[in-house]
From TrEMBL, chains A, B:
Ranges of residues in domain Ketopantoate reductase C-terminal: 217-348
Record-given protein name: Related to ketopantoate reductase
Pfam (any one): ApbA
Record's signal peptide: none
Amino acid sequence: MTIIQQTKPNALIIGTGGVGVIAAYSLSFQNKCNVSAVVRSDYDYLTNSSGYNITSCDYGKVENWKPDNIYSSVEKASEAGIFFDYIAVTTKNIPDGPTPLDKIVEPIINSNIINWDHDLDRSTNIVLIQNGIDIEHQLDKFSIDRNTREKPSVCCISGVQLICSTRVGKCLIDHKSKDNIIIGPFDPKDKLANEKSHEFIDLYFNEGHNMAEFDKDVRYTRWRKLIYNATINPLTALAELDYSRCYEFGDKEKRSDSGYYSSTEQKILRPAMAEVMCIAKSEGYELQQSDIEFFLNETKYICYKPSMCVDAENNQLTELVVLLGNPLKIAKKNGVYTPLLEMLYNLMVIKQNTIKERRGLIKFDEKTCKVIA
Amino acid sequence: MTIIQQTKPNALIIGTGGVGVIAAYSLSFQNKCNVSAVVRSDYDYLTNSSGYNITSCDYGKVENWKPDNIYSSVEKASEAGIFFDYIAVTTKNIPDGPTPLDKIVEPIINSNIINWDHDLDRSTNIVLIQNGIDIEHQLDKFSIDRNTREKPSVCCISGVQLICSTRVGKCLIDHKSKDNIIIGPFDPKDKLANEKSHEFIDLYFNEGHNMAEFDKDVRYTRWRKLIYNATINPLTALAELDYSRCYEFGDKEKRSDSGYYSSTEQKILRPAMAEVMCIAKSEGYELQQSDIEFFLNETKYICYKPSMCVDAENNQLTELVVLLGNPLKIAKKNGVYTPLLEMLYNLMVIKQNTIKERRGLIKFDEKTCKVIA
């Protein structure tokens, strides 16, 4: 393999949907790093066309843009002879699916280690621009021997993003709300990850365009987002219905003012959100009642379908494990009582396996009525 | 209207699916009563053909059978000039649908009262061959002035049926498991209903063929059936999945023997069934743990879709109110804690309204995100 020496750091984006393409473009904007991308469904189209066409609230109309390098798979990227300093993962995080996170990044980590095996000043910095809690532990096996420093380190950086950006056609991106990303080490005590988080922000932040802020304790922000993602997300996925309808289709009870209570809010979402707060609290993270009000109302009147609902409707596996399964593991460990979240989870487990059956990932024998592996 | 005088009692069957046709045939078998039927989807076919063809485990092959009278609607039946002594209702019981029980039977009750207004020896005896609890109260308004005895009484009889009989084509009935019906007054203290229950059994029971037993306290049997109908029914409807898959698709946890626990059973169904037992107990009905085991296992390995699941899949309104809503009203009144049943109910309320929207029974305005009446 020809090893390409470069002076600028190399960033690889894995996952080029609406979020990934904006991330790639943001990193390339000031030309401070080389940007590569693993492109799946758009690969053939992209290589044979002049590039992405992006309508962006942050960058205006961007026509015919391409990353510096394009690969059809992580394996191909790992064979390119490039040390990828930053791997930004923007795929969905589905540990129970056929390509869990560790399998996705492993080829790149291995090629970094093999080809630069004694370049101990370099590290493979994996930026997980994904939702959910405890997602970084899927990469623990890569950092076990970090302190021995016999090969380039692997370090884990958290990215929590507020953005509305959608792939609306082949290489066609519609980016509607300001990219606002919060970056920081998963482990606040991890010096290297702290340092690399700041370096990544320097590459990503484009003044006057997007927002990229450092956060020394990202877990708080992750818990806060779970108020929405562990409750409204699975509810809408179970109902296969936008949140507005889920709300309006509840039993209604008149309030003392002219309004009414919906059972969806009063009997499912509020108590389930309170359970999320209790789990976070059991870890020392104090979420606010105002967060519940914010997430209850943010998308109530816009017929919005959260990602888990869209996935369920499209027979795609959902992020059930990281959005709801992992919080419940913490609840169990800490003795937090979470009957509603557990019910949502146990119902969603059935739905997730229904999707797995439809995708041929599991088989159900109707004669014995058993799942056959 | 010509008033037809008859010496035998008249029975009218409303609802001629698999269950209703067998009921009609059973009543006609010994020719002890005249049997009329309100036939909806099969009406044209039935009037232009030689009759029903029934393959029955109780009666063998029955070819070209017709009830004595056939009507296309209850209104038509009410104009026939017949006093219907027994109205056997075998439709689904959906109080929140367009044709609730009181509307279904009202034309017949009115015609009985108007045309025989001083025949105080006769009574309109309504036999509800339907599942659920507190269904008889939908008819309370008809029996308010029963004690004044100024017009023929209305009395309410409960029928709880164990049967497997399906309409498999136009006027084609496949009756697979022995008809076993338990008959009794909804109110054990109601002397007239007691007496009329026995009379109905005399008409319905055909020795050597079917089973028809008197039960002086039908509520126990209704509660017992709710162990299944308030839990497995809504679960499978929410998942739109047969019970076997719902069971097998749960998270599995190894047991000390070679088997495993399914989260569907351990975390949803067993606790929800225990809640049904607690509600029944709060009314003085002592269900047994063995009932739970029976219902958990009865249909576990036959890929069976309960009625609520079939209804949801076919965009038909489900019996949510009588199978789950009414039990929860009793729980609330008696202070019984039922978090899992409530969650199943509140999720099913969303599903029921989704079905209503699809059937045009409610309208949702996507601009305002409100249900418009």
